[in-house]
Design a protein that fits this description.
There is one protein chain. The protein is of the alpha/beta class. The chain folds into two domains: 30-130, Immunoglobulins (Immunoglobulin-like, Sandwich); 136-366, Alpha/Beta hydrolase fold, catalytic domain (Rossmann fold, 3-Layer(aba) Sandwich). Helix content is 23%, strand content 26%. It is built from eight helices and 18 strands. The strands form three sheets. Strands 11-12-14-13-15-16-17-18 form an eight-stranded mixed beta sheet, with helices on both faces. The longest helix has 19 residues, at 238-256. 41% of the residues are buried.
């Protein structure tokens, strides 16, 4: 029974069991280029067109150096006579963004060749694997919105808290125009910088607006107070963050930005644990938000929504390597019950930012339709 359960675990996680053969990978194409997230002038890490990643780190006095790419594993590096350690992933990585760090003789270090991003409840090195559809979040010659930091007073936490606000192109010039607002939450281990830095939310919006695919709106991103319970998810209490968001941040945004303040023009969405927060808050405060988005963050049922103000939109998404059947069944059940529900499944991705970038791309055009 123990061996059976172990085999099931490895099957579901996509990891090979020791002693089990894997399908032969195609020959590695030698078209490696520096990752788009490298420090200026740094050649490594490198990625190729197939999604392999190659690393090179100087650590002349180390005994072991390993790359930790989280759920996708990572290679042990080999030491050369020049004191540099080199190695490559055993298989291609999923498309898009990945956190990683170096394990050097048991210590945890960032790669000096890569930029750092807040994830795993610390600043981690970042790696970008080329994606076949990366054009939708590329930096283009189009009008750009602004992402600005705000500090808002929070009596409940007795401090000023931080949020980042995306305003669309033309916001500063069209001084009489008011905009809908999406409150967009990060996942556990991340913070209010994640959607702009890792998620490219502002570039996704700029490109969609330039293509005429969406009605421009404001995005507000704040810290979800999630990392205090890392490793103790059952201890998480939504009430403190709900107070910060609903009673403190929303009034501040409405007072300092040109917003449409009715329920129909306010949405909430989040990835992973931010999706869990979205679900709980929208069910607790359905009079505040008109549209909901759970990105790898669970589902709603018709029973959850019964007796509450009907949402304009329910958007549920995940990666194809997560739980697409559950997402699609939930949407089918919601539609059958008369709710406006939409599903999105990101092909060939798991619980990672390429899934959520694609989710935002598909969610944005559906929001705030008349």
């Amino acid at each position: 029974m123990k061996h059976t359960m172990l085999a099931v675990f490895f099957f579901l996680s996509g990891t090979a069991l020791p002693g089990f053969s894997q399908a032969t990978q195609p020959a590695v194409v030698e078209d490696f280029k520096p990752s788009a997230l490298n420090q200026p002038g740094q050649e490594y890490p490198q990625v190729n067109s197939q999604g392999y990643a190659r690393f090179r780190v100087k650590a002349p006095y180390a005994d072991t150096v390993k790359v930790n790419l989280g759920g996708q594993g990572g290679p042990y590096l080999t030491k050369g006579a020049d004191g540099f350690w080199t190695g490559m992933t055993e298989k291609p990585l999923d498309e898009g963004f990945h956190y990683y760090h170096l394990a050097i003789d048991g210590g945890r270090f960032n790669d000096p060749g890569a930029l750092s991003f807040f994830g795993w409840a610390r600043w981690e090195s970042g790696l970008e694997t080329p994606a076949h559809d990366q054009d939708f979040y590329a930096l283009k010659d189009v009008p750009h919105g602004h992402v600005q930091q705000i500090l808002f007073p929070s009596k409940s936490t007795q401090t000023s808290r931080r949020a980042f606000v995306y305003t669309p192109p033309g916001y500063e010039k069209e001084t009489a125009k008011k905009y809908p607002v999406l409150y967009l939450q990060h996942g556990r281990g991340e913070n209010e910088t994640s959607w702009s830095n890792q998620g490219r939310a502002n570039l996704i919006m700029d490109n969609l607006i330039a293509e005429g695919k969406i009605k421009p709106f404001i995005i507000v991103m704040t810290y979800g107070m999630t990392n205090e319970v890392t490793g103790r998810i059952n201890d998480f209490n939504i009430a403190p963050f709900q107070t910060v968001l609903v009673d403190e941040l929303i009034p501040y945004v409405d007072a300092h930005f040109r917003t449409l303040t009715d329920r129909a023009n306010r949405a909430m969405a989040g990835l992973s644990m931010g999706g869990m927060e979205t679900r709980l808050i929208t069910l607790n405060k359905p009079e505040v938000f008109g549209s909901y988005g759970l990105l790898s963050g669970g589902v709603y049922s018709a029973d959850d929504l019964k007796g509450k103000p009907k949402p304009k939109l329910i958007f549920l998404s995940c990666g194809s390597k997560e739980y697409p059947d559950r997402i699609q069944k939930a949407v089918a059940d919601l539609k059958a019950a008369g709710y406006p529900a939409v599903s999105h499944v990101s092909e060939n991705t798991a619980h990672e930012f390429q899934t959520w970038r694609r989710s935002l791309r598909d969610l944005a055009p559906l929001l705030f339709k008349n």
